[in-house]
Predict the 3D structure of the following.
Amino acid sequence: FPSHDNTPSKPQVERKRRKPTLFYPNLVRLLGGDEKAADRLIQGLLDAYPDKSERWCYEKALFDLTRDRH
């Protein structure tokens, strides 16, 4: 009988985040005050771009939201 190994090949490690005072309030404001949406957005970017810094992810989120509003 084949063995069934249910362990994931690469465990997803969530990077510990801070809420940079320069970026987080602006991000939340652009999202209509939705802090959970801001957290999900940043976590998604951190997961999608693991080689990028947290600051880069915040800057990208702010740039994308601002761009998409025009």
In short: The first helix runs from residue 24 to 30.
